[in-house]
Amino acid sequence: MLSEALKYAAARLSGQRDTHGHLAELVALEARHARRAEDWAPHLKNARALLLGAARACPPERRRTALIAGPGLLLEVPLAEIAALFRRVVLVDMAFPPSVSRAARELGNVELLARDLTGCLDEPPASPEGVPAVRLGLDAPDLMEDLDFACSANLLSQLPLFVLRKIRGQGLPEDTLDAVAQAIIRAHLRWLSCLGCPACLLTDTVEHALPMQDSGLDEGHEVDLLYGAGRE
User: Fold this and answer.
1) DSSP readout, 14-32?
2) Which of 22, 35, 47, 89 to pair with 69, CA 20 to 30 A apart?
3) For residues 77-87, b (16+ Cβ closer than 10 Å) or e, as one string?
4) Short-list 76, 79, 67, CA closest to 103
């Protein structure tokens, strides 16, 4: 815990904001990875191979800008290899821990763009109709002019979580909360499909519950992390 607190303090002292708790979550994720590195290794290896393979599929003349949404700690993102392929790489996330900022500086052609990819954390919606469409330009029109590759990196199922955390106390029915989560996921998928360039989607879709004493869950119980949007 002390190590996590020190890393969080260092990130805040470096100028990182944490309005919605994303930075704290990244620090906690780093600690979980340190504890379970061996267990996570196969997933991370497969994810990095998939992302890099998709990036390498871009023809040499179409390797200007690559956009990585949700890079987190770069566990699934082979940043050095991607940066070697493209003239410019833009990482888009709510927060960037010092290790990511340092990697970006060292590579030289990597930019950090702090954005809320749900578009609604500052004004959480009370219904699915209140979920805005994510702006394609991400407030950076020049990004779209030479965008040749994009990746949503293990982000899709995580997008609704911080929004739901904010609106659960409003007394909304559970089916309304599910509908808001589904609308956020759909908006992100539409954004990714409308970028006008090859796009790679890394995401988990189902959570398998392990049987635990007094948990009330049967062995094999599954939770749809995409709230039905992945089946459409």
Assistant:
1) TT---TTSHHHHHHHHHHH
2) 35
3) bbbeebbebbe
4) 79
Separation CA 163–CA 180 (nearest Å): 9
| Residue 53: count of CB within 10 angstroms of its CB | 10
- Rg of the chain over Cα atoms, rounded to whole angstroms, equals 18
Q: State how far the Cα of 69 lies from the Cα of 72, in Å rounded to an integer.
A: 9
Alpha-carbon distance 214 to 110, whole Å?
Answer: 48
Strand partners, 147: 65
Contacts of 59 (CB under 8 A, 6+ apart): none
Which residue type occupies 213?
Answer: Q
Which residues touch 45 (CB under 8 Å, ≥6 apart)?
none
Entry pTM: 0.86
Give yes or no for residue 35 having a pLDDT over 60. yes
For residue 180, give both structure tokens: 């808001």
Give, in order, the Cα–Cα distances in Å from 159 to each of 15, 77, 156: 24, 18, 6
- Comparing CA positions, the residue from 69, 60, 74 lying closest to residue 148 is 60
**pLDDT, tens digit (0-9, with 9 covering 90-100), for 3-20:** 655 555 565 556 666 566
CA distance linking residue 146 with residue 88, whole number of Å: 10
Which amino acid makes up residue 196? G
Task: State residue 93 phi and psi, 5-degree precision.
Answer: -160, 170
